[in-house]
From TrEMBL:
Heme b binds at residues 10, 17, 125, 173. It is an enzyme of class 1 (oxidoreductase). Coiled coil: none annotated. PROSITE patterns: HEME_OXYGENASE. Pfam families: Heme_oxygenase. PANTHER family: HEME OXYGENASE. Its EC number is 1.14.14.18. This is heme oxygenase (biliverdin-producing). It comes from Lyngbya confervoides BDU141951. GO terms for biological process: photosynthesis.
Length: 238
């Protein structure tokens, strides 16, 4: 019996998706204004988030629900390590620390893993499906915005173990639809996904101060004035 969880998540998080893409930092990014100091802080925050999520997913890979959406080929921790080495140098581990919002996000992931493992589905969906859907677009923007050579500082966006991203997304959604969850649990997963979007927004908002200092308040206001429906939101429907 299908849970239709993939459709429930897509429909149930549309508003959150739009809100996340209207955070100033993301609007500037999507318009090509990428500032290296704030961007590398985002890479560091994402490293701590993925490290936590992938540790919990790996620990729970035999769980009746988590096991169904456990795809190690999605893992981002090692690719983020390569990017951190590029942005911070060989001593990056001693240099980076999570922002306050990233710390709270990491704590929530571990809490869910310990108490309600099925809700990890929401965190996996929120991050990985967005990465797959918008990855190549965002990689190109980052390369142009920071004048990077191909492959420099953008390993995060490259899924080397996945040859056909569209086919993989279909496989991933089919796995979600096949999860043995009842209506109440499905609704909890949608609620958790909305919370995950909110936690991502808080991380993005923390970076705006650095960005404004780098590009100036006037340009920031110009770039973020209009509300948009973002390109990666449309891409997740592919």
């Amino acid at each position: 019996m299908s849970s239709n969880l993939a459709v429930k998540l897509r429909e149930g998080t549309k508003k959150s998706h739009t809100m996340a893409e209207n955070v100033g930092f993301i609007k500037c990014f999507l318009k090509g204004t990428v500032e290296k100091s704030s961007y590398r802080k985002l890479v560091a925050d994402l490293y701590f988030v993925y490290q936590a999520m992938e540790a919990e997913m790996d620990r729970l890979k035999d769980h009746p629900i988590v096991s169904q959406i456990y795809f190690p080929e999605l893992n981002r921790e090692q690719s983020l390590e390569r990017d951190l080495h590029y942005y911070y140098g060989a001593n990056w581990r001693e240099t980076i620390q999570p922002s306050e919002a990233a710390q709270q996000y990491v704590q929530r992931i571990h809490e869910v893993g310990q108490t309600q493992p099925e809700l990890l589905v929401a965190h996996s969906y929120t991050r990985y499906l967005g990465d797959l859907s918008g990855g190549q677009i965002l990689k190109g923007i980052a390369e142009r915005g920071m004048n990077l050579s191909e492959g420099e500082g953008t390993a995060f966006y490259t899924f080397e173990a996945i040859s056909d991203e569209k086919a993989f997304k279909n496989q991933y959604r089919a796995a979600m639809d096949g999860l043995p969850v009842d209506e109440a649990t499905a609704n909890q997963i949608v609620d958790e996904a909305n919370d995950a979007f909110h936690r991502n927004m808080l991380m993005f908002q923390e970076l705006e101060g650095n960005l404004i200092r780098a590009i100036g308040k006037m340009l920031f206001n110009t770039l973020t004035r209009r509300r948009v429906r973002g390109s990666t939101e449309l891409a997740t429907a592919d």
